[in-house]
Amino acid sequence: MKYADVIIDISHERLDKTFEYIVPDELEEQVVEGVQVVIPFGQGNRAITGYVVGLHDKPGFDVTKLKPIARVVKDSIAIESQLISLAAFLKRNYGSTMNQALKTVIPIKKKENEKMKKEISLAISLEQAKIELNELMAKPRHALGKERLLRELLEVDTLDWELATKKLQVPTANIRDLEKKGIVHIESVRTFRNPHLNKDANRKQITLNEEQEAAAEQIKADIDTGRHKTYLIHGVTGSGKTEVYMDVMEHVINLGQQVIVLIPEIALTYQTVMRFYTRFGDKVSILNSRMSPGERFDQFERAKSCEISIMVGPRSALFTPFANLGLIIIDEEHEPSYKSEVIPRYHARETAVYRAKLAGATVILGSATPSLEAYSRAEEGEYQLITLHSRAMGQDMATCEIVDLRAELQSGNRSMISRRLKELMADRLSKNQQIMLFLNRRGLMGFVSCRACGHVLKCPHCDVALHLHSGGIMKCHYCGFTTKAAKICPSCGSKYIGSFKAGTQRLEEIVKEAFPQARVLRMDADTTSGKNGHEEILAAFAAHEADVLIGTQMIVKGHDFANVTLVGIIAADISLNESDFHSGERTFQLLTQAVGRAGRGVEPGIAVIQTYQPENYAVVSSANQDYDSFYSQEIAFRRLLSYPPCSHMLGIQVSCDKQKDAYGQADVLADLIRRTDPEIVIMGPEDAYIGKLKDVYRRVIYLRADDYDRLVRIKDAIDKFLLEQKQYRNTSTWFDFDPINT
Ligand code: ADP
Ligand code: ZN
Ligand code: ZN
User: Residue 417 has what DSSP assignment?
Assistant: First the structure.
């Protein structure tokens, strides 16, 4: 006998509330997670519908009190069913409770009393309003609040709800009453608005080139014949992938279906977002990570009610409740931001493929530098590979020069800018062309250390270095801990203590010194803190208000500046030194994207890669823009060491504010794993990359297996154990399948 947990209300606050029902034998096959069922409910056994969110073999309650499920709703294609199945998929494959998974998939519904920004305006003409006001005042005992409100609205177009109720002290009942009488409007304002469309901007009329056409036609033909596949479009930078997406999107929308487009980060892909707008107008909505849960909920409601048919957004846009989803696009498929960093730690790629299967939809993954995961699946035929070999308008790829920094150093140049790069910069500036200088952020941060003994000053609450900030303070970037900058080294007493300036800042100074006439813009975490920081800098550079753009990896993502003819990569190998097995892949991706920024317009481009490891395969193959060569070397390395995608990994993290208990629990779990699956490869337990964060100690265990389900079984065993465990209940444990930031 099986038992099912059923939820009867999809609203967010009620997800916790499940009811247990018996699954009658004859329904056993049909009752799966997500399915809609009819159940007898309450005293009168009213027949109502609900959704199955969990199944188990043992009843959680007294069986004699349980009622059986009446029937399964046939062909329940309800979008809710799909989303609940999706939640079940997240729970099963990434590790979380059903509740956490449901909350990931179903957005938070605004509570009635949630303070919303509301605006009050007149629903009638000014003339009528004056009459109303006069009539009101003619009454001997009228509501003064109404009078104040009407007077104010005769002066201003709209009035903030807060202002009206607090400052003008208009009682809520008065406002509601005027609303009921049709005198005022109350409108909830979204602080997020769709960007203003410049209708005059004449959209470039684009005809797909042969390669693009062939790609789009192939996908459309499959869709028309009911074949729903996953495609990987591998197209060099500037090959026009976005135009292919849009062509297929139009086709799908004309079929009356909807589209989800995932992009890595809105702020950084502003241009791309605008292209979807200019093409599809009001059909498009955008989710962004700065939105409040309420705003997100609003956008999802618009999707549900078919007000829009395209949702563009980060990975969470994947859960847009489109009832008739036809296509999911994941642009820049290789981006690490597609992996969730909170439980359940799902990957948008796998989850998209699963959702598409449920919905009968097509998936398009696109990248100039596909992830090893996606490309190996394409090789195995699981995804269909489509290659765009050349740039959209036949522009040449940038030529690439590698500068050996060791030789540069030996010949006496200690500057961040090599002679060759400097020479090219001078040339470009004299021709009024633009330059981008890219500095890999990692490793070049302004942390505080002692030059005498090498001691690094760390946060007392976290196992990370402190950073120097203006005003003579040091700060922890993880917990915000702030303290006065040290004058002497706490370890050796020397006074040679200081910080290395953040690389981008230093670079800016050097460029300004070398080229005083050049107009320089810098884009990094410091300069983009404002709400529109990114957009403003990018727009200014696009308008050629600056000659040189200096930045971290932020500047290499998908921007299309036609006048950029030189890209300088200041220190290519910094990301190679990371211990993570992804470091070769990340370096290749960053360099290839950076090189791809040059020469997108009429003038040919040059990229200069400065490196200490000129022979490294990631550096060489990105200089040659040769993905195949990179892939074949990298996959061989992964195969040799049995790393993903040639295997699967499971990270298990135990955390606790008591170090002893974090260690103890990690050891207990390691033992449990050995008993559950004696053959499995275990690494650890060891301290996490950041072993202490905000005074919480973190231990990790990594497992490796060829078979994903083997790892899932271990996760399930641990989950079961944790439920019953009496010891170490003050620790917490989470899972990370195929971790990206190990
Ligand atoms: P990708 O996404 O592959 O980097 P994009 O789609 O951004 O490439 O295209 C690069 C540039 O080429 C864009 O400015 C785009 O408008 C232009 N473009 C793409 N396809 C064509 C085409 N068939 N004809 C003319 N211009 C095109
Ligand atoms: Zn010291
Ligand atoms: Zn800290």
Answer: S
Closest among 349, 288, 378 to 94, alpha carbons compared: 349
Ligand 1 atom nearest the C-alpha of 596 is 4
What would the pLDDT profile of 82-128 be if each residue is shown by its tens digit?
A: 888 898 899 889 998 877 888 888 776 654 444 457 888 888 877 77
423-480 per-position pLDDT tens digit? 999 999 999 999 999 887 544 456 788 878 878 888 899 888 888 777 788 888 777 8
CB atoms near residue 61 (< 10 Å): 10
* DSSP state string for 452-516: TT-PBPB-SSSSSB-EEETTTEEE-TTT--EEEPPSS-TTT--S-EEEPPPHHHHHHHHHHHH-T
pLDDT class of 538 with cuts at 50, 70, 90: confident
- Compute the distance between CA of residue 60 and CA of residue 18 in angstroms, rounded to an integer: 11
Q: What are phi and psi of 255, to 5 degrees?
A: -85, 0
Q: Which ligand is closest in space to the CA of residue 559?
A: 1
560 lines ligand 1 (CB under 6 A): yes
What distances in angstroms separate CA 19 from CA 7, 50, 119, 202, one per listed residue?
A: 6, 9, 41, 57
At CB < 8 A and 24+ separation, what contacts does 626-635 make? Answer: 627/234, 627/368, 627/369, 627/370, 627/592, 630/588, 631/372, 631/375, 634/372, 634/584, 634/585, 634/588, 635/372, 635/376
Write the burial class of residue 575 (CB in 10 Å: 0-12 exposed, 13-18 middle, 19+ buried): buried
Task: For ligand 1, atom 27, name the residue with the nearest CA.
Answer: 392
- CB of 209 within 6 A of ligand 1: the answer is yes
- Burial of residue 679, with CB atoms counted within 10 A of its CB: 0-12 exposed, 13-18 middle, 19 or more buried: exposed
Q: Is the CB of 269 inside a 6 Å radius of any atom of ligand 1?
A: no
With a 6 A CB cut-off, is 626 part of the ligand 1 pocket? Answer: no
What pTM was computed for the model?
A: 0.81
Q: Whose CA is nearest to atom 21 of ligand 1?
A: 392
**What is residue 535's predicted lDDT score, i.e. its pLDDT?**
73
For residue 599 and ligand 1, the question of a CB distance below 6 A is answered with no
pLDDT value for 502: 60
Q: In this prediction, does ipTM exceed 0.90?
A: yes
